[in-house]
């Protein structure tokens, strides 16, 4: 089945550090990928829609300069949390929409737990 | 705007009990509906889906029917197992919004032996 690999799965770093999270579709191409944030015991909140070869579309209230998204190929999107602070600590999850088949469901990565000290 | 409302958890059941998790939605178009499951520390896995009214999605003993008249997509399973313990998310996808998923708040299920 369709597999999405997210890396790293867990990262702990000091305040002020920038952290890059990768989301790869391993056996399919994905023109569109999505980035979500999840707080403990809460639902997933869509942060942005990442489109290959173009700028990401951010949801209202999400700082685009804080959460940089790059989708340079049909199998890779990256989310960089710039100058991370403790309030950025969260569980970040990506998903990928298979290209060419809009009715295929999104496939999710296993998430990245980010802890900022 | 579009939204999804799920019954609040946590839901605690004994093994082999019947499960229902309620989900209702609000949408302007004709959304597709999904149930996703999240095991501790993991991402989401698609459990089942339905793309039009009266469709029934089913998988691993779980099922849900797309009810347009009641705007509902309740998840059911006849006999739960301990391994079903997880958080379940109801979601909708509106074709007019580029495939974005709108999630409910999630319902935690705990099944005791």
Tell me what you see in this structure.
- The complex is a heterodimer of chains A (117) and B (113).
- Chain A is mostly beta strands and 117 residues long.
- Chain A has strands spanning 4-7, 10-13, 19-25, 32-38, 44-51, 57-58, 67-73, 76-81, 90-97, 107-108, 112-116.
- In chain A, the strands form 2 sheets. In chain A, strands 2, 4, 5, 6, 9, 10 and 11 form a 7-stranded mixed beta sheet that branches.
- In chain A, β7 (67-73) and β8 form a beta hairpin.
- Chain A is globular, with a radius of gyration of 13 Å.
- Chain A starts with a strand and ends with a strand.
- The relative contact order of chain A is 0.33.
- The model of chain A has no long low-confidence stretch (mean pLDDT 91).
- Chain B has 113 residues and is an all-beta fold.
- In chain B, 0% of the residues lie in helices and 50% in strands.
- Chain B is built from no helices and 12 strands.
- Chain B has strands at 3-6, 11-14, 19-21, 23-26, 32-38, 44-50, 56-59, 62-65, 75-77, 86-93, 101-103, 107-112.
- In chain B, strands 2, 5, 6, 10, 11 and 12 form a 6-stranded mixed beta sheet that branches. A 4-stranded antiparallel beta sheet of chain B has the order 3-9-8-7, with no helix packed on it. In chain B, strands 1-4 form a two-stranded antiparallel ribbon.
- At the A-B interface, β5, β9 and β10 of A face β5, β6 and β11 of B.
């Amino acid at each position: 089945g369709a597999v999405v690999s997210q890396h790293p799965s867990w990262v702990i770093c000091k305040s002020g550090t920038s952290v890059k999270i990768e989301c790869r579709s391993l056996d399919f191409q994905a023109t569109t990928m999505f980035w979500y944030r999840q707080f403990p015991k809460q639902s997933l909140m869509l942060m942005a829609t990442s489109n290959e070869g173009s700028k990401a579309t951010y949801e209202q209230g999400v700082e685009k300069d804080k959460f940089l998204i790059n989708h340079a190929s049909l199998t890779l999107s990256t989310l960089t949390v710039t100058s991370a602070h403790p309030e950025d600590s969260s569980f970040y999850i990506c998903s990928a929409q298979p290209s060419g088949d809009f009715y295929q469901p999104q496939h999710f990565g296993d998430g990245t737990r980010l802890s900022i000290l | 705007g579009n939204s999804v409302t799920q019954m609040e958890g946590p839901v605690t059941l004994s093994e082999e009990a019947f499960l229902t998790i309620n989900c209702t939605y609000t949408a302007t178009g004709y959304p597709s509906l999904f149930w996703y499951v999240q095991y501790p520390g993991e991402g989401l896995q698609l459990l089942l889906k339905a793309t039009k009214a009266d469709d029934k999605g089913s998988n691993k003993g779980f099922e849900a029917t797309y009810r347009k008249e009641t705007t509902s997509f309740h998840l059911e399973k006849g006999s739960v197992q301990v391994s079903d313990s997880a958080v379940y998310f109801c979601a909708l996808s509106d074709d007019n919004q580029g495939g974005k998923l709108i999630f409910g708040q999630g319902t935690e299920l705990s099944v005791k032996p």
